[in-house]
């Protein structure tokens, strides 16, 4: 039976400031680092086969901290050209001892467009509750020059189904470190949530959502 662990990154510096972050590449706070380490301690006895993360540093940081407790060595797999060649491993023993990490932009956070860097409460006051709620919580209304949750799902889900689902279906144990909205789109698909249900879904920082797969998906815990 395959297993899937979905982890939202720990608290970032802009989470702590209540600023819209989107694709701005901010790092974790000390609290976020500790959240990720605690998640890693809780999952230390899980033997992951492969890991995926977005290309944003807060998700990558979180994943590396979580995987610090694994017996295998986490290794970021290079995809392109000279870097791919130069990072080749020529020892069978070493290859068997690594935990491969794949990075991909399709798992990135929802792009918040012109809202990025704005304080959420100030934005609410400026534009009004109705428009603010539409931008932040509706399924298919994007913020100014940004992505809606529906648009995020249209890039995240094809990648998820193409690259990650087949591994879980083969019985592998897969961990994904990503973001509130890219993970919402995945959970929506796995659990068959409606567009109304998914916008109310809250995914906490660095607390794994665990799914098993034996032909159908089942959420654990």
What does this molecule look like?
It is a single chain. The protein has a single domain (2-202), classed as Rossmann fold (3-Layer(aba) Sandwich), CATH 3.40.50. It has ten helices and seven strands. The chain has helices spanning 13-17, 30-42, 57-67, 81-86, 92-96, 120-127, 129-137, 149-169, 180-191, 195-199; strands at residues 2-8, 50-53, 73-76, 98-103, 173-178, 209-213, 217-220. A seven-stranded mixed sheet has the order 3-4-2-5-1-6-7, with helices on both faces. Helix 2 (30-42) packs across helix 3, helix 6 (120-127) packs across helix 7 and helix 8 (149-169) packs across helix 9 (180-191). It is globular, with a radius of gyration of 18 Å. The relative contact order is 0.23. The mean pLDDT is 96.
Radius of gyration: 18 Å
Helix count equals: 10
Beta-strand percentage range:
15-25%
Q: Which second-level CATH architecture applies? A: 3-Layer(aba) Sandwich
CATH class: Alpha Beta
Sheet having the most strands: 7 strands, mixed
The rounded distance between the terminal residues' Cα atoms is 16 Å
Task: Tell me the quaternary state.
Answer: single chain
* Approximate shape: globular
Topology:
Elements lengths: L1 E7 L4 H5 L12 H13 L7 E4 L3 H11 L5 E4 L4 H6 L5 H5 L1 E6 L16 H8 L1 H9 L11 H21 L3 E6 L1 H12 L3 H5 L9 E5 L3 E4 L1
Helix pairs in contact: 2-3, 6-7, 8-9
